TrEMBL record:
<dbReference type="GO" id="GO:0046872">
    <property type="term" value="F:metal ion binding"/>
</dbReference>
<keyword id="KW-0496">Mitochondrion</keyword>
<dbReference type="InterPro" id="IPR050410">
    <property type="entry name" value="CCR4/nocturin_mRNA_transcr"/>
</dbReference>
<keyword id="KW-0507">mRNA processing</keyword>
<dbReference type="InterPro" id="IPR048821">
    <property type="entry name" value="PDE12-like_N"/>
</dbReference>
<dbReference type="Pfam" id="PF03372">
    <property type="entry name" value="Exo_endo_phos"/>
</dbReference>
<dbReference type="InterPro" id="IPR005135">
    <property type="entry name" value="Endo/exonuclease/phosphatase"/>
</dbReference>
<keyword id="KW-0809">Transit peptide</keyword>
<dbReference type="Pfam" id="PF21171">
    <property type="entry name" value="PDE12-like_N"/>
</dbReference>
<dbReference type="GO" id="GO:0006397">
    <property type="term" value="P:mRNA processing"/>
</dbReference>
<feature type="domain" description="Endonuclease/exonuclease/phosphatase">
    <location>
        <begin position="283"/>
        <end position="585"/>
    </location>
</feature>
<keyword id="KW-0378">Hydrolase</keyword>
<keyword id="KW-0460">Magnesium</keyword>
<dbReference type="GO" id="GO:0004535">
    <property type="term" value="F:poly(A)-specific ribonuclease activity"/>
</dbReference>
<dbReference type="InterPro" id="IPR036691">
    <property type="entry name" value="Endo/exonu/phosph_ase_sf"/>
</dbReference>
<dbReference type="GO" id="GO:0005759">
    <property type="term" value="C:mitochondrial matrix"/>
</dbReference>
<feature type="region of interest" description="Disordered">
    <location>
        <begin position="1"/>
        <end position="34"/>
    </location>
</feature>
Length: 595
């Protein structure tokens, strides 16, 4: 839980829908460094305040029929919604009426004060539309009161911090900006040391000062900050001006971390980002919170894991540190909760330079996420599908559907599955002619579902071939995912070898009722970039290799594979997930070079 300490005067304009908290005294200027004071002083000067003049904030977007006018009238904050196409005179008359609105309904309304709008010293015609009349820098006069009009100023309607913050783990605010962007906004972190520490004898009731702790969007508290409180001030900007600052204070102190994590050693291999023509790819099943936070998960699936380590806030502290430390250019994630993507993962990774795409599974609360480093790639197009739906709806799979119609049991099971395929075509920012097809999937999980996984991968490979061979001829393929298949299965050999015979045992993996023997082939030349690790999933009762990064062997070669955690690290808390590892899977990481 966090506390919003934004001054009350801006609550109406900037308050978050989720905002809860109490007001706090402004920061003592004596605690601010010269650099920070100059930054914030410049921001305030650019706010456009003139000698304490009141403001009338106008929010107007071309795509919206109405605009809003926010200002203080008779001591109360008012927000008027007006049609953009209506004449200005009607809006001014409404402002006049609002300035004299009585709280007692029985009293007749008093005549309103004269209201006029001026721009560059000249009165604005009341026949103009609201869309044209309300210009930035105009002056609104309501009786003797003068308001400076700010049209679409930079705003920060939402600012949130995680409930739990741990030392040595990055803290990234979730924010929503309007008419602003993070790169042109100011972020100043403050910390307040805990009272009562050894050797610390503060005066009784003395107000402890906030000290500056950082000036970036992301802050990583040090071990020495354990017990300290944190506060963030965000001043939204658009490159030419700044808006009202917003402050948020963490309710709880910085907590101690779990100590060594399974990914710490791996980060030693990824301390630097790769450069052209090498790109770093990661595939990782995060373990969806919708599955981790259930009684079944706590008592049956992961009884060895401390309950607090299954909580979303704790696991996502670890996930943010783990993913940011890999410095990936391409990041394919599975089991990503819809709310987690929008509220936590996308904002955090955006702060680390990654843009994300999300694909929800059919009738599920989780799905697939693909992130790409925006300094390296631009999105060209997306070609996501639901595997079952595509089988029946896309003529591309007509032959497979016809063959499967002979096996109604397998066909029904295939069409009931919610699995999706995420396909993104990206182009290099350095060389737009260099494109890549990045695919991401999570196949059917059931241990006896080998036949369904063969059908799913057949649909997936056919769709990927269409994108990479026909829509964008000749572009290389990187196909990541949790395939729920070990290297001994038909799914793996089909991807690797390009064929599967009708006699393969996986066609009868779930008995005679779901048997669907058929011969399949595909033309893609794919290989597992990370080989065949002993396991990528390690839980009580099972461990095995289920995850792969398949690459186009004719266009890409492996520069290096980041070593997996040691067996001792994985089993230090019996199995996964644990207090030192956030998922039941282990991320695959490799550096790939264009041939």
């Amino acid at each position: 839980m966090t506390r919003d300490t934004t001054p009350a005067s801006s609550d109406r304009i900037l308050a978050s829908p989720r905002g809860r908290g109490r007001a706090a005294p402004p920061l003592d200027g004596a605690t601010m460094s010269g650099a920070s004071s100059r930054l914030l002083g410049g921001a305030l000067r650019l706010l456009g305040r003139a000698g304490g003049m009141e403001k009338a904030v106008v929010r107007a977007l071309p795509a919206e029929a109405k605009l809003s006018i926010s200002l203080t009238l008779s001591g109360s904050q008012r927000q008027l919604q007006r049609d953009q196409a209506e004449p200005l005179g009607r809006a001014l008359a409404r402002i006049s009426a609002s300035a004299t609105k009585s709280k007692k309904r029985k009293e007749p309304p008093a005549p309103g004060p004269p209201v006029r709008l001026y721009y560059r010293g000249q009165p604005v015609s009341e026949a103009q539309t609201n869309a044209e009349a309300w210009q930035d820098g105009a002056e609104l006069r309501v009786g003797d009161a003068v308001y400076r009009v700010e049209r679409n100023p930079p705003m920060c309607p939402e600012l949130e911090l995680p409930r739990h913050v741990m030392a040595d783990f990055p803290v990234c605010p979730r924010l929503r900006l309007e008419f602003a962007d993070p790169d042109h906004s100011l972020f100043v972190w403050y910390k307040q040391q805990a009272r009562g520490e050894a050797g610390d004898c503060p005066e009784s009731g003395a107000q402890q000062r906030w000290e500056e702790a950082g000036h970036e969007r992301v802050l990583t508290p040090a071990v020495g900050d354990i017990g300290a409180r944190l506060k963030l001030r965000c001043t939204p900007g658009d490159g030419s001006r700044y808006g009202e600052s917003r402050e948020l204070e963490l309710d709880g102190p910085v907590e101690a971390g779990p100590g060594a994590c399974t990914f710490d050693e791996r980060h030693l291999y990824t301390q630097r980002q790769t450069e052209e023509p090498v790109t770093r790819a990661v595939s990782y099943n995060l373990l969806a919170d919708v599955y981790a936070q259930t009684e079944h998960a706590r008592t049956v699936l992961f009884p060895y894991c401390a309950p607090y380590a299954l909580e979303m806030e704790y696991r996502h502290c670890l996930i943010r540190k783990e993913l940011s430390g890999y410095r990936a250019n391409l990041l394919c994630l599975q089991e990503v909760d819809r709310a987690v993507f929008s509220d936590s993962l996308a904002p955090a990774l955006e702060a680390f330079g990654l843009d994300g795409l999300f694909r929800l599974k059919d009738k599920q609360h989780e799905g697939l996420a693909t992130f790409y480093r925006r300094s390296r790639y631009r999105l060209c197009s997306q070609h996501d599908i639901l595997l079952g739906e595509a089988l029946t709806a896309d003529p591309l799979h007509q032959d497979l559907l016809q063959s499967l119609s002979c096996y109604p049991g397998a066909k029904d099971k295939m069409l009931q599955r919610s699995s999706a395929l995420q396909v993104s075509v990206l182009e290099s920012t350095a060389d737009p002619s260099r494109k890549v097809c990045v695919a991401n999937t999570h196949l059917y999980f059931h241990p006896k579902g080998g036949n369904i996984r063969l059908l799913q991968i057949a649909v997936a490979l056919s769709h990927i071939r269409h994108v990479a061979y026909e829509l964008y001829p000749g572009i290389p393929i990187i196909f990541c995912g949790d395939f729920n298949s070990t290297p001994s299965t038909g799914m793996y050999s089909f991807v690797r070898d390009g064929t599967i015979s009708e006699s393969h045992e996986d066609w009868t993996s779930n008995g005679e009722e779901e048997r669907c023997n058929m011969s399949l082939s595909h033309p893609l030349k794919l290989k597992s970039a990370c080989g065949e690790p002993a396991y990528t999933n390690y839980v009580g009762g099972f461990h095995g290799c289920l995850d792969y990064i398949f690459i186009d062997s004719e266009s890409l070669e492996v520069e290096q594979v980041i070593p997996m955690p040691s067996h001792e690290e994985v089993t230090s808390h019996q199995a996964l997930p644990s207090v030192s590892h956030p998922s039941d899977h282990i991320a695959l990481i490799c550096d790939l070079r264009w041939k």
